[in-house]
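A further point concerns the way the authors explain their paired sequence and structure data. Since the whole study asks how a given chain folds, the encoding of that fold should be made plain. A single example would do more here than another paragraph of explanation. An entry of this sort, consisting of the sequence and the corresponding backbone structure tokens, reads as follows:

_____
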Amino acid sequence: MTKKTFSRLMLSAFAALMIITLVPDISSAREEPSIKKVRGEGISFQLDDEREVRATAIDDALKKAVVAAYDSLIDQTDESNEAIRLKESILSAPLNYILDYRVISEGWIRHLVIEPGLPVPPDGALNTFPSAGFDDSDRAANDLLNSADAALGNEEEREDQFAPQEQGLRLYHVWIEASVDFKELKSDLSLTPSYEGEDTSLVTILLITVKDYKFFTSLKEAIEDLDNVKKVTLDSFLKGKIVLTAEVWGNPHELLEKLKANKNLRDLDIIPSGMDRITIKGVIKK
């Protein structure tokens, strides 16, 4: 091999190496990662078992991480009944999409104001917690109020009306980072049944022994939330007897089966009165 031939070979090898180095891997650059890190914050009330408190907060945080992942994949402006049902279906088992997680931070926080987004406290949850866990700023504020009231001569009255060490709602917060399986989440989104393009039929629903308007609205909303129901209209409204018409996709008999399978309606008597007529009797138990 001559020097000239060797030089040409070296030049060709160098050029090939530069091409490999400079040209990006287009296929890998375009590929979406199937697993992504998503953060979530969970909250729990004070319970008798501290282990249950932490577990409840972590479960809440994991669910919120899946909610965030879901929200990143769908149209946020879609507020249709179908979109709502889709979200409820996906989030009914959020742990199916969690591969692993780590706790970033956790601890108790006392909320003096119930902020938007916080869980609604049960009856008696406010003003019933012990003073344990309060920091020095709380004690300083209490001492300041005691001094002021003593000077004004109404300390006893103030203690009856306002006790800072007992105010607020004590909640356990957990912040986590979870590995969410986006591939599985997208797969379940694509498998959601769609009735688009199918013919619709009308089903008459007779409600009897209806006691109040709240019962009626709860039942009407439960029917509207079924995935094969396009819309529900009110035909007549009389005390104790209401007639609704449901426009449904596919086989109208499926409406009866879905009503019976709905856990929110399990205390009602749902009676078929023909292929296109259903009678519902009873009161939803709270």
